[in-house]
């Protein structure tokens, strides 16, 4: 996996708070292309809720909110995938990797988050 960097200002570059695996980036690119819009980004957010207290939300969004961290995740040989994380969620997902699995037994996105102190059996929520 290649490290992704984001630029906050022309002189300031930091590591992206969250990364997509190559399979996840390709799936997001496929879904974005199917939408047929070039103004959408994958928004990664953490909200209160779920069995363990916090839950992830992944959805396409055209909005830009104050404090958003925008990321252009490179895809090997296929351009980039635009991502955005709101400022409240950044510390909760920093260091996380989002992967995508497509097998006969399981299909979907999974988040490996080093900040999660615990989770639930469904895998959709965590505690900090």
Molecular structure report:
By secondary structure, this protein is mostly beta strands. It is 14% helix and 47% strand. It contains two helices and eleven strands; from the N terminus they run βββαββββαββββ. The strands form three sheets. A six-stranded mixed sheet has the order 6-7-4-5-11-10. A three-stranded mixed sheet has the order 3-8-9. A two-stranded antiparallel ribbon has the order 1-2. A hairpin with a 4-residue loop joins strand 8 and strand 9 (107-112). The protein is globular. The two termini are 26 Å apart. Mean pLDDT is 82; it is low at 7-13.
What are the SSEs and their pairings?
Layout (H helix, E strand, L loop, with lengths): L4 E5 L2 E4 L2 E3 L1 H14 L5 E8 L5 E8 L7 E7 L3 E7 L4 H4 L2 E7 L4 E6 L5 E2 L5 E3 L1
Parallel strand pairs: 3-8, 4-7
Antiparallel strand pairs: 1-2, 4-5, 5-11, 6-7, 8-9, 10-11
Q: Could you write a compact summary of the structure shown?
A:
This protein has helices at 22-35, 90-93, and strands spanning 5-9, 12-15, 18-20, 41-48, 54-61, 69-75, 79-85, 96-102, 107-112, 118-119, 125-127.
Rg from Cα: 14 Å
Query: How many helices in DSSP terms?
Result: 2
Q: Bin the strand percentage.
A: over 45%
How helix-rich are the residues, as a percent range? 10-25%
Low-confidence parts, pLDDT < 50 over ≥5 residues? 7-13
Structural class: mainly beta
Number of DSSP strands?
11
Strand order of the largest sheet: 6-7-4-5-11-10
Q: Describe the biggest sheet?
A: 6 strands, mixed
Residue-averaged pLDDT, rounded? 82
The end-to-end span amounts to 26 Å
Multimeric state of these chains?
Answer: single chain
- H/E topology pattern: EEEHEEEEHEEEE
Shape: globular
């Amino acid at each position: 996996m290649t490290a992704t960097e984001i630029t906050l200002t022309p002189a300031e570059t930091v590591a992206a708070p969250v990364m997509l695996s190559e399979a996840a980036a390709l799936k997001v690119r496929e879904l974005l292309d199917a939408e047929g819009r070039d103004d959408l980004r994958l928004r990664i957010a953490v909200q209160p809720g779920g069995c363990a207290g916090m839950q992830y939300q992944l959805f396409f969004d055209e909005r830009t909110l104050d404090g958003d961290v925008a990321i252009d995740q490179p895809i090997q040989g296929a351009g980039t995938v635009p991502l955005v994380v709101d400022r409240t969620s950044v510390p909760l997902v920093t260091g996380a990797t989002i992967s995508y699995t497509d097998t006969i037994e399981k299909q979907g996105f999974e988040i490996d988050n080093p900040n999660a102190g615990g989770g639930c059996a469904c895998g959709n929520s965590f505690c900090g």
